[in-house]
Design brief:
Belongs to the class-IV pyridoxal-phosphate-dependent aminotransferase family. Its cofactor is pyridoxal 5'-phosphate. It is an enzyme of class 2 (transferase). There is one protein chain. By secondary structure, the chain is α+β, with helices and mostly antiparallel strands. It folds into two domains: 152 residues, Aminotransferase class 4, branched-chain amino acid transferase, N-terminal domain (D-amino Acid Aminotransferase, Chain A, domain 1), CATH 3.30.470.10; 160 residues, D-amino Acid Aminotransferase, subunit A, domain 2 (D-amino Acid Aminotransferase, Chain A, domain 2), CATH 3.20.10.10. It contains six helices and 18 strands. The strands form two sheets. Strands 1, 2, 3, 4, 5, 6, 7, 8 and 18 form a nine-stranded antiparallel β-sheet that branches. Strands 9, 10, 11, 12, 13, 14, 15, 16 and 17 form a nine-stranded mixed β-sheet that branches. A hairpin with a 5-residue loop joins strand 5 and strand 6. Helix 2 packs across helix 3. The longest helix is centred in the middle third of the chain and has 16 residues. The chain binds pyridoxal-5'-phosphate. The site of pyridoxal-5'-phosphate has 14 residues, from helix 5 and strand 15.
Length: 341
């Protein structure tokens, strides 16, 4: 696959897609130890047809971004949290964790090596980094791999959804993760399970679907790739407490920011029958930061939040505050930002 050249990119229309940049970080786990990571120009992976990951899904991944500041420097946002979460995901999938310091080093090296591809300040674009790990041992019987590849590539992405446009969502009749399954791990299998429900939602004209808890189908879980929040009329920032959702770093950060804004942050079970208590609803995750949810349709009834065309004022402020911290325009009072240069 041919490499993307900087001059081929239109910073204001990047979308969210893969570009083959000059460098990525790669490492292998063999003979009981990591062999030592390094940058490589080779964007292909080579492994056997019987590799564990291909048949039994032993894979975990992460997603984080590098941001160009106004002064030209580069910020990372809470990469330690991604390193820790990847370790937790790996342990759930019986994989060898990638050491936290190596993970951070990998991210920094990949960003520096592809620095020319970080979208300029003000374009809304960022450099998205995708670290991942897979089991490569040849297996036929189901057993954890004893060999792994760790890799981290980067690709420039635009503002995931341009401007804050509210979107319509629908409650899915399917589940993405089982109760006490792998919902808390960032693993490929959860996404494979969400493809069909997501397809059905889109076919009906929705932006995507929202999953309920897999045991009772009564409480809100999350979207296929983003956590849920709702703002109540009395100023609570509510987000689901559930064993089958991915612990979002964006959520963790917004819980703090909401509190700073004078909202009351609450992690609790949220019944799908109580949707009308929310003034505003949003989806949170690294890719979009926040996507405002204009409506949720459940059993044929559409519940509208704030407006179907304009983001609510609290949603707008949460977004502006978090993105402002990430890109270095606002003070980083919690020490979340890692300045690369
Ligand atoms: C990655 C992901 C999120 C968002 O997590 P962030 O750390 O905020 O990017 C939410 N839900 C799922 C299922 C995810 O995979």
């Amino acid at each position: 696959m041919t490499k993307t050249r900087v001059e081929d990119l239109d910073w204001n229309n990047l979308g969210f897609k893969y570009h083959n940049l000059p460098y990525r970080w790669t490492d292998t786990f063999e003979d009981g130890k990591w062999q030592g990571g390094h940058l490589t120009q080779d964007s292909n992976l080579v492994f056997n047809e019987a590799a564990e990951e291909l048949h039994y899904g032993q894979e975990v991944f992460e997603g984080l971004k590098a941001y160009r500041r106004k002064d030209g420097g580069i910020n990372l946002f809470r990469p330690d949290q991604n390193a820790k979460r990847m370790k937790n995901s790996a342990e759930r999938l019986m994989m060898e964790a990638y050491p936290e310091e190596e993970f951070i080093k990998a991210i920094k090296e990949v960003v520096k090596a592809n620095e020319d591809f970080i979208p300029p300040y003000g374009s809304g674009g960022t450099l998205y980094i995708r670290p991942f790990m897979l089991g490569t041992q040849e297996v036929v019987g189901v057993t954890p791999s004893d060999r792994y590849i760790f890799r981290a590539y980067a690709t420039p992405v635009g503002a995931y959804v341009k401007g804050l446009n509210p979107m319509p969502y629908v409650i899915s009749e399917h589940d993405r993760a089982a109760h006490k399954g792998t919902g808390q791990a960032k693993t490929a299998g959860n996404y494979a399970a969400s493809l069909y429900p997501s397809f059905l939602a889109k076919k009906q004209g929705f932006a995507d679907c929202l999953f309920l808890d897999p045991r009772e189908h009564q409480y809100i879980d999350e979207f296929s790739g983003a956590n849920f929040y709702g703002i109540t009329k009395d100023g609570q920032f509510q987000t689901p407490k559930s064993e089958s959702i991915l612990p979002s770093i964006t959520k963790k950060s917004l819980l703090k920011i909401a509190e700073d804004m004078g909202l009351n942050p609450v992690e609790t079970k949220i019944s799908v029958d109580e949707l009308d208590k929310f003034e505003e609803v949003g989806a949170m995750g690294t890719a979009a930061v926040i996507s405002p949810v204009g409506s949720i349709t459940y059993k044929g009834k559409k519940h509208v939040f704030h407006s179907e065309t304009e983001p609510g004022p609290i949603t707008q402020k949460l977004y502006d505050t978090l993105f402002g911290i990430q890109v270095g325009d606002l003070p980083d009072k919690y020490g979340w930002v890692v300045k690369l240069t």
